[in-house]
């Protein structure tokens, strides 16, 4: 899955998207001017191939919301946790509406998935997570994440929880260097609990973080067949799509060249590799993986389902009620 430079497809990008090894596009703020431009771009990407390529974005809310106005500007997910501490019942209801709002607006302009929710526990360590975390307690994270996920699925969007197994126990940002979490496996039970609940509830995707757990495996989780094949897929029973975080991040650099990084992630058991903000590397990775026999069609399971138009969505009573209820979070 690759990204784009601007608000329309260049000829080079069109050529990349024709390559069988490329299965989708992740969009960023630089790709968004207004609704009509975004809708046209998404349709253009979908029309390049049949079956259609997947279109994704990070639209968590707070500081990680790539598309803002006229999209509903969502508060950070930590606001749901703070609200839960005041009124658990209402917070669970609003979490469902939060997930539905995020997903329904994206689906209304054709975007297939938002990589969400973040289920890293708030341990007060990782600034890159910060207020993206729902709560400090695993049980609360699980409850809120389950309601967000249900709201997303109600809107016709699949759920991709992140960053497995955890980015919560480290200070270092994996964008800048490889974080190392020295906790043993039995010390990670709280971090893994939200995934166990979400997998049982039928989420469709999990994103792997570039974090090393040397007491468990010598390799970073994103390149670890133990974490992906044995723990996530076998022990936890996850049968959905496994996605690596961006291999351009410094946390993935230990595997070598960009092609070698992609190969390492895929060989470890991931189904999808993200490559972002490094357009000069895309052709090389495509060439490196020319003989790769993986099935890009596994991404088809993450495609969005039918949805309302933007105008019909915004005119609906349910959208108005969701907007009103979510606005409560602005005070949290």
Helical run tally? 11
Number of strands: 8
Quickly give the CATH architecture.
Alpha-Beta Barrel
Largest sheet: 3 strands, parallel
Number of domains: 1
Account of the 3D structure:
This protein has eleven helices and eight strands. The protein is mainly alpha-helical. It has one domain (11-331): TIM Barrel (Alpha-Beta Barrel). Strands 1-2-5 form a three-stranded parallel beta sheet, covered by helices on one side. Strands 6-7-8 form a three-stranded parallel beta sheet, covered by helices on one side. Strands 3-4 form a two-stranded antiparallel ribbon.
SSE diagram, text form:
Elements: H1 11-18, E1 24-27, H2 35-48, E2 54-57, E3 59-61, E4 64-65, H3 78-86, H4 88-108, E5 113-114, H5 138-154, E6 160-164, H6 189-201, E7 205-208, H7 225-235, E8 241-244, H8 258-268, H9 279-288, H10 310-315, H11 317-326
Parallel strand pairs: 1-2, 2-5, 6-7, 7-8
Antiparallel strand pairs: 3-4
Jot down its keywords:
332 residues, 11 helices, mainly alpha, TIM Barrel, 39% helix
Task: Provide a short characterization of the protein structure.
This protein has 332 residues and is mainly alpha-helical. It has helices at 11-18, 35-48, 78-86, 88-108, 138-154, 189-201, 225-235, 258-268, 279-288, 310-315, 317-326; strands spanning 24-27, 54-57, 59-61, 64-65, 113-114, 160-164, 205-208, 241-244. The two termini are 35 Å apart.
